[in-house]
Amino acid sequence: MAHDETKRFNAIVVGAGPGGSSCATFLSKTGVNVLLLDKEFFPRDKICGDGISARSLDILRELGVLEKIESIPLRKISGFTFSSPDGTLVDIPIPKRGGNIRHGYAIRRLLLDNLLFQNAKEHSIKTMEGFTVTGLIKDSHSSRVVGVEGTMSDGQKKTFYADVIVGADGVNSIVARETGARHGDIAHLGVSLRCYYRGVGDMKGNLELHFLDKLIPGYFWILPMANGFANVGIGIVMAEMRAKKINLKNELFRTIENNPVLKDRFKDSTVVPGTLKGGTIPFGSKRWKAYGNGWLLVGDAASLVNPFTGEGIENALYSGRLVAAVISEAYLKKDYSESQFSSYEHALKKELDPILQNSYQMQKRSRSGFLLNLFMHKAARNQKVRDLMASTLTDVNSRQIYSSLFIYLRMVLTPPYW
Ligand SMILES: Cc1cc2nc3c(=O)[nH]c(=O)nc-3n(C[C@H](O)[C@H](O)[C@H](O)COP(=O)(O)OP(=O)(O)OC[C@H]3O[C@@H](n4cnc5c(N)ncnc54)[C@H](O)[C@@H]3O)c2cc1C
Hints:
By secondary structure, the protein is α+β, with helices and mostly antiparallel strands. It contains 13 helices and 19 strands.
């Protein structure tokens, strides 16, 4: 194959979503020469629930982009609303930190990702849009990953070389596939459908997760957006969907029309045509290997989505920062080997696994409709249980209250119940 251009960088980041743009921006601050590639042209949309967690805001501030984000249409999200299969509602505000009220945002990915990408560009990073990576180039002796090959939107083929390739190319990551990292364990993958509505009633400014008997541990969600819109969707563990032969689209509209907790809120609403779209979600309950000889993975490409809430932007941003630190250390040592990059695994274990594993325990405890009903009854009336839920959802260092079935049952089954 004839390639018309060859270029060398310290690092190539494949994919300019939140993970890739954050990684490239943090890398640029360390003097590393970066190429950030994406197959799309920005602004581009990404199928998403559009919820940005409170923890994400810390890192958006560090990236220097939070003020810009706050100047575009968004909606402040102050907490979570849950409902159990029997319709018990529980509100959980995002807990304060250091006495300060915290919140998240609802913002369209078309806008958020574009701001992150433009911010990366402003950090003297070389960027290339409309370039689809089609394969990795490996050194024939060491089998180290040394570059990428791909195609421009006009069909031109190009190759680029670097000391390290970062796969930030989302759930279907070619970097994860070609390095053999990705697993296909459907018990740890999710499937979601989302669409936009106008005129949904009684929205309180919370991310709403409504657990339905047929979907658990999955749920139906509503996220209030700017200008009277709502992001509405449905998500389920892929293994459950296949085992129960669920048609997600039917389930979404059946819920809107018939669910006793929800149907009245949709009676004056209209769906925004053409917005019903779906995607796969790689849960961090069983991450795959995210590093090797000459390569690293971030965000969805590394399977880092919260297995309880389905949120993945936060960990995409955080893993982008972790990988930038790992590469800048490797750059100083001129060592891009698998053993050098194993420090990334240690960092993931320390920084992200506690919240991922805690959330996985929450997901597991939500598989029984009977227990979920009991739990929500208790949470609805007991501030301590609500506080525990809040810290598990938002605090990396929260106690592992869901890890033992025994402790969970004791919490659910001991008085006071009501
Ligand atoms: C229906 C649904 C709802 C969700 N709701 C939420 C939510 O409310 N909140 C939340 O936090 N998370 C949510 N998520 C998860 C969230 O969307 C992802 O976790 C997040 O986008 C991961 O960011 P990323 O940067 O790793 O990957 P992505 O955002 O997927 O970005 C990957 C980038 O790589 C590019 N790319 C892909 N392949 C190539 C290639 N071969 N060559 C070049 N470029 C390539 C793509 O164009 C894209 O720009 C949801 C997901 C789905 C499917």
